[in-house]
Structure formats: structure tokens, C-alpha cells
Design a protein that fits this description.
Elements lengths: L3 H15 L18 E2 L13 E15 L2 E8 L8 E4 L3 E8 L8 E3 L22 E7 L4 E6 L4 H4 L6 E6 L8 E10 L15 H5 L5 E4 L6 E6 L3 E8 L6 E6 L2 E7 L2 E8 L2 E4 L4 E7 L4 E9 L4 E11 L23 E10 L5 E5 L10 E4 L2 E9 L5 E5 L3 E4 L11 E4 L3 E9 L3 E7 L2 H5 L3 E7 L16
């Protein structure tokens, strides 16, 4: 356990970074009627304390019906995707986890800025052996759309169905008529209707595992939903695929982007199409000005065609859509006080013919960098090779520099082939943090490293576990 001081100083630091300017304490605020989140069913909260969400999760094998086949997959609590966790910012989440798989695993809370020892990193946490248990317990810092998944053999376990939505809500969140969580994935079945083995074809090592069909909230056809003209919804989208960048669009409604990986945007913006790299989240505001059919589609590169993934039948009504009042959100500008670069390339070799490198090393053992807590660093991600890389940093947020089309705080950014992307990252969360490509085959084949952030109170960051593997 960390000293208490850290739990409490941590949210204070966050308030400086992302809190809306007007922030009456939760106690003074009248209860807000935020809607339930439509999508994967929520896990049961077993704790009567309104400021603690306490759930049980178990990873097991499970069978999922996909296009007429009974496919053996992995699920949390038997579900693919796993159950929704919904927690208020500042409250505690307690997860009693049991590993019912025949291989070790951990759970990583993608995007949450929590203490490093709760982050599911196998460099810190000994993987939970088959039959083993572990309790994750932490205060959830800031509101937004997150997800959780394993961090051991992720290329196999995430592909097999271990991923699930996590919503952190806040008293100040705008109130919509409905909220929906849409998990965009793809899946690859063999001729017998079984999940393909990892690295079953040579391009997997080069581009990551692409599925042969889209798989959205656990189904291959479009999800269906109903709504009424004049209502306004919040859709939370995440790309949980192993490798496929998703290009999506909404037709039949008015849409703006209201949030990114790090929560709500100060200034929402209208868009036609959105590119969602693996791991990223985009929150959309969807306004039904008319009745009829509203469709979320994803561009499927294999067929060069848009495929519907969510169809909403919007019933006619006399109602006119209201404008959602936008909270004042201040994201202070932080000046850069350091710079670093990460060079990405590949070499031939290894079991699967290719290995991926960060700054010249396959699976660097030593941290790429060590920064003191509070440092804001300009990092150039320099991709020297053709395949693209969704680069992900644990435990911190960053801005993408020099690209006005990507506002907002991020924890993952797409670095296209043969190009450079520059980010400005604020290292406000001390600990040992993974920094890796979210193409899970790339991270498995070497693109997995860490960055150490030393606490400003002079404390030490724990040494990595001996023999932590990758
Ligand atoms: Cu979602 Cu280290 O990853
Ligand atoms: Cu990559």
C-alpha cells in the first residue's frame, strides 16, 4: 500500500490539469440523473457504500455464437466483451479477480492514472497463475471512457475476448438522454469456425492480426437500438482490435466529438469521419433532428466497403432537440521542459521472422527514460518503417502537437508509416510505466518498454520484478 498522502495528493494534481473551472463540491450538488450505459451489461456492485464499487471478475473459457459457429473464446464473467464497470470519479474501485484460465494473466485498466502497482503491468505485478486470485483496489481519478484488458499474452487473450468497458462519470458530466458504449473489434476464424492461432500467418508479425470480420460488442452483424427524434445521446467508442485502425462515420444524425482518451473536450467539434487507432476512445454527441434510420458504420478495408455496426431506429415525434449546455473545461497549457525521441523500426529474426525495436532494442530491459515527477516532455515518435503503430503510454496523458485535427488529451496516438509524430506528455504520476505499441503482435515481438517517473517527494520507484519476461 502507498502512503495515504499519495492517494489524496493525486486527485488534487488532476484538478489542476483537467477540472472544469466551476466545481461545486459533490455534496452541494443535486443528484444528477445520468442515464445507464447501453452496451455490455454492468457487473454487480456488491458494496452498499455509494463511494465504493466492489465487483467480482473471473476470466474463463466461454463459448460465443458467431455466424452460426460455437466459438471457444475467453470472457470476463462469461461475457464477450466483459461487463461494464461504472464508477464515479474520486470513488474507489475494488475488483476481486479470479483467474479461471489455464494461463497466467493480469488486468490493465487502460487509460486510468492509478498507482503503478495496480496497473496490471507484469513488470510490477506477478502474473496471476491459473486458479489464482488478486484484488485490484484503487481510487479512480478522472471521468472519461476507458477499458480494461489483460497485459500478459495480450495478443492472444484480448483477441480471444478479454476486454471490457469502464466508464468513469462525474457530477459535472453533461446529462444525455442515453449513453451507449460501442466496442469496435474484428475477429479471425479458421475454416472450421475456430479462433485462429496467434501468428498463424506471416503478415501477423508485420502488421498485427487482422480479423476477417468486424465484431462489435460481441457480434458480427450490426447492433440495433431505438431512439426518439429530438433526443441527444452520448456514444463512447473504443477500438479493441489487435491491430486494425478503424475508420467510422455516423449517417442520419448530427454528430460532434465531445471527448477523447482523457475525457471531455473544452471545445467539441463536428466531424464526418473519425479514425480510431487501436486503444483510443472517442466520445460522440449524436443529435436526432429527424426520425428515421441512423447508422454507425466502419470502413472494412478487405471489402473496401462501409459496414453498419450500429443501426438506431429513430421514432418520429414533435420534440425538437435541445442544445446540451457545455461545462467549462480548462486544460492548462503546460510548457515543455524537456525533449526525447523514440525511434521505431524492425529487424529480421525471432520465431516469427520479424522483431520490433524501440530506440534500437527489442524488448528493452532498461527504461527508455527516467523523468522526475511533474516534468512535461516533448517526445518525437519517429517511425522509420512502413507499418503504422498506435503508441500507448500508461499512467499519463499527452497532447498531440502540430496536428489540429487531434485535439484533447490522449493516451494512445497513431504513428503512420515512415513519419514522425510529436507529443507533449506531462509525467505527473510517479512509478514504472509501460510504453508500447498497441498492435498487440508488435508489443509481443519487442515494442514494449517502460518509462520511469521518480516521485518528487524523493521516494524511490520499486525495482522491476526479477524475470518479469515481457
Ligand atoms: Cu491497453 Cu498497455 O495497454
Ligand atoms: Cu506497432
Amino acid at each position: 500500500m502507498k502512503p495515504l498522502a499519495r492517494w489524496f495528493s493525486f486527485p488534487a494534481a488532476l484538478v489542476l490539469l483537467v477540472a472544469p473551472a466551476c466545481s461545486p463540491s459533490a455534496a452541494e450538488e443535486p443528484a444528477r440523473a445520468l442515464p445507464e450505459v447501453w452496451g455490455p451489461a454492468a457487473a454487480v456492485d456488491e458494496n452498499p457504500d455509494p463511494h465504493v464499487v466492489e465487483v467480482r471478475l473471473e476470466a474463463t473459457s466461454t463459448t460465443v455464437d458467431i455466424d452460426g459457429e460455437h466459438v471457444e473464446m475467453f470472457g470476463y464473467n462469461g461475457m464477450v466483451p466483459g461487463p461494464l464497470l461504472r464508477v464515479r470519479a474520486g470513488d474507489e474501485l475494488v475488483v476481486h479477480f479470479h483467474n479461471g484460465l489455464t494461463q497466467p494473466t493480469t488486468i490493465h485498466w487502460h487509460g486510468l492514472r492509478i498507482p503503478a502497482e495496480m496497473d496490471g503491468s507484469p513488470r510490477i505485478q506477478a502474473p496471476i497463475e491459473p486458479g489464482g486470485d488478486f484484488t485490484y483496489r484503487f481510487v479512480v481519478p478522472e471521468a472519461g471512457s476507458y477499458w480494461y484488458h489483460p497485459h500478459v499474452r495480450a495478443h492472444e487473450q484480448v483477441e480471444a475476448g478479454l476486454y471490457a468497458p469502464l466508464v468513469v462519470w462525474d457530477e459535472r458530466d453533461p446529462v444525455y438522454d442515453a449513453e451507449r458504449y460501442v466496442m469496435l473489434d474484428d475477429i479471425l476464424l479458421d475454416a472450421k469456425g475456430r479462433l485462429e492461432e496467434p501468428f498463424s500467418s506471416p503478415p501477423d508479425a508485420m502488421f498485427g492480426r487482422y480479423g476477417d470480420r468486424l465484431f462489435t460488442n460481441g457480434q458480427t452483424g450490426a447492433l440495433v437500438a431505438e431512439a426518439t427524434r429530438g433526443t441527444v445521446e452520448r456514444w463512447r467508442l473504443v477500438n479493441t482490435a489487435n491491430a486494425r485502425t478503424m475508420l467510422v462515420k455516423v449517417e442520419g444524425a448530427r454528430v460532434r466529438v465531445i471527448g477523447t482518451d482523457g475525457g471531455l473536450l473544452p471545445e467539441p467539434y463536428a466531424v464526418d469521419e473519425i479514425t480510431i487507432a487501436v486503444g483510443q476512445r472517442f466520445d460522440l454527441e449524436v443529435t436526432y433532428d429527424t426520425g428515421g434510420e441512423v447508422t454507425l458504420s466502419s470502413f472494412f478495408t478487405d471489402d473496401k466497403a462501409w459496414k453498419p455496426v450500429l443501426d438506431v431506429a429513430v421514432a418520429e415525434s414533435e420534440r425538437e432537440a435541445r442544445a446540451i449546455p457545455w461545462p467549462e473545461i480548462v486544460v492548462p497549457e503546460r510548457a515543455s521542459d524537456g525533449s526525447a525521441s523514440i525511434v521505431i523500426d524492425a529487424v529480421q529474426g525471432g520465431e516469427h521472422g520479424a522483431q520490433w525495436r524501440l530506440n534500437g532494442q527489442v524488448h528493452p530491459e532498461e527504461p527508455l527514460f527516467t523523468f522526475p515527477e511533474g516534468r512535461t516532455v516533448t517526445i518525437t515518435l519517429d517511425n522509420k518503417i512502413g507499418p503504422e503503430h498506435p503508441f500507448h503510454l500508461h499512467g499519463q496523458f499527452f497532447h498531440v502537437l502540430d496536428d489540429p485535427s487531434q485535439p484533447g488529451l490522449k493516451d494512445t496516438v497513431l504513428v503512420p508509416g515512415f513519419s514522425k509524430v510529436t507529443i507533449l506528455a506531462s509525467f505527473d504520476n510517479p512509478g514504472r510505466w509501460m510504453a508500447h505499441c498497441h498492435i498487440l503482435e508488435h508489443s509481443e515481438l519487442g515494442m514494449m518498454s517502460e518509462i520511469v517517473v521518480t516521485p518528487k517527494d524523493g521516494g524511490e520507484v520499486e525495482a522491476p520484478r526479477a524475470g518479469h519476461g515481457h
